[in-house]
Amino acid sequence: MADPSTQDLSKQTAVQLRDTLATGELSAREAAAHFLAAIEQRNQQLGAFITVTADQALEDAATADTLHARLAREGRLDELPLLHGLPTGFKDLTDVAGVPTSHGSAALEHKPAPEDGALASTLKAQGVISLGKTQVPEFGLTAYSENRIAPPSRNPHSLARSSGGSSGGSAAAVAAGLVPFAPGTDGGGSIRIPAGACGLLGLKPGRGLVPAGVSAGDAASLVVAGPLARNASDAALLMDALVPRDQAPDGGYLANVGRAPDPLRIGVSLDSPWAGVYPFEIEQVALDALDLGIKLLSEAGHNVGEAEIRYDNRYPEAFTAAWTAGVGSARIAPQREPLLTPLTRTFRRRAQQRSALKVNEALGFLRQFEHDTIAQYAQWDLILMPTLARTPRPIGWFTGGGHSGDPWPSAWAGDADEDYKRQCQYAPWSSMVNVCGLPAISIPVHTTAAGLPMGIQLIGHTGSELRLLQIARSLEAATEAV
Predict the structure, then answer these.
(1) CB 3.0-4.6 Å disulfide test: which of 108, 229, 397, 482 passes with 234?
(2) Of the listed 158, 167, 170, 190, which one is catalytic?
(3) Does the structure show a pLDDT above 80 at 184?
(4) Structure-derived torsion over alpha carbons of residues 136, 220, 281, 275, reported in degrees to the nearest 10
């Protein structure tokens, strides 16, 4: 067996680690021990993991090694699970058997989950070793991962700044090399926002493609699970584990990700359905990233032009009604409601005051919005914009809890409506993709003078997940060649 102390496993890609584990050159227990040591060393600064399950991880890794030894003796290593021995973490909205699920809330009792949720069950069956649970905002509601139960998830590129949300802890863990890749869930940008903030590739699959990760109370069918990874091949590998074989491309995502797609018509749009209610400014560094993306895509042979997209100005009210309906029905004891963050408490009260008729009207509008928006997007193969309108925000910026130097916990002094407005202005191009049920990807393409990553987002047609990964891989190859 290889000695993990002689190599930096954190710098290996998930695909490289998968291959090394499959051959037996590296044991699952060695891999788990290495990444657990990395978490021990860096997590106190990052706040990426809220719970670390070291003993269970090492036990599961030993079981994986026993399986590997048996299959090797029998000459059946081709029967190893796809992700045999690969360490990862699950965001703390996902049930993992025997581990408390906090939902990022001090208002809930944090009891151990009796069994794995669908996402954890799917990926464990594919061989992953869970190292613990990662930080999230309360109930996954926000574009930043700060709450009242644990230190905020910080950006590995600048510890004073947020790693985004709601998959912020998972993104920070991947970007810092605490895990090779991680699953996220995305109901309004929760994979793409932290991917953009942390310089990762984040893919939100289209509605219905990934059965695991769907939320039971998600009346608008907004939420889907997808990969957070450092490159397109690693994301493709995780997609091969998440997508049922009969819905995947022939041969799978990883086998096809290196093929360059045919020349595409790509429409650039800075329009947002939030602009009428929350006018926003786009920082120059976000436009710089967009310009670089346009240049790289054009040089790759794609036809990039301006797309004029018009959105119905009733969208913000309808989306907010659908997005917050679940927190209104969450089972929270009245005496514990004061423990909710101001934003959650405000939107829970409003959701409870909203009639079922109003919610159904909002859902009906969103279905019409979906139809109208997809019809406009259909004029192009892909729609392109920056991932985020601004650089990663300082810790406490959304909540009014103070400046980046404030100690945790912040004062949570901010107004809920100001908090929400800032989120919509920070990520104005995210949630409408969930409403439309379309696949979208955030790709890192630019680094600011201060060392902060900036990305672009591409929105595809239904079923274009592989195409999006192929575009990402081609951009990686172009930037590697520079």
Answers:
(1) 229
(2) 190
(3) yes
(4) -160
